[in-house]
Amino acid sequence: MKVLGGFVILLGCQLIGELLVRSLDLPFPSPVVGMILLLIGLMIYGEVPEGLRVVAEGLLRHLSLLFVPAGVGLMVHFKLIQADWLSIALALLISSVLTIVIAALVMGRMMSKDGEGKHGSAD
């Protein structure tokens, strides 16, 4: 029964995201809006409910299946990709570098806060 609740939470967030994007004509994909709503809900709740955790872990175990449609898209639209390969390569390079830099900054900040807490409690 917990698993069903986890699916309801995920699908509910996606549904609300879809409704918001369509009704407000937002320029974002509805699953992204749904994920942001889920994140906000989890931050308010303070922890991940057991059912949602089980469902998320199950989906993550089969994440590789989500690359099949992307691979098919690459094959079907090869001519379009070939025509704009430089733009695509630059976008991938820049976004990858930005992601690595931001992740490193966040990690460094989190580690410094964690270190402060450990030293502060010993004093």
Question: What does the model show?
Answer:
This is Murein hydrolase transporter LrgA. It is found in: Cell membrane. The chain crosses the membrane at residues 27-46, 58-79, 85-108. Its main location: membrane. It holds the Pfam family LrgA. The chain has 123 residues and is mostly helical. The protein folds into 2 domains: 1-61, no CATH class; 67-123. The chain is 85% helix and 0% strand. The protein has 6 helices and no strands. Helix 1 (2-24) crosses helix 2 (30-45) and helix 1 crosses helix 3 (50-61). The protein is extended.
Write the layout of secondary structure elements.
Elements: H1 2-24, H2 30-45, H3 50-61, H4 67-76, H5 78-83, H6 85-122
Helix pairs in contact: 1-2, 1-3
List its traits.
mainly alpha, 0% strand, membrane, 123 residues
- N-to-C SSE string, H for helix and E for strand: HHHHHH
Number of domain units: 2
Q: Low-confidence segments, ≥5 residues, pLDDT <50? A: none
Number of beta-strand segments: 0
The best one-word shape is extended
| Major β-sheet profile | none
Put simply, the count of helices is 6
What is the percent of helical residues? over 70%
CA(first)-CA(last) distance: 47 Å
| Mean pLDDT metric | 89
Q: Which structural class best describes the helix and strand composition?
A: mainly alpha
**β-strand amount:** under 5%
Radius of gyration: 20 Å
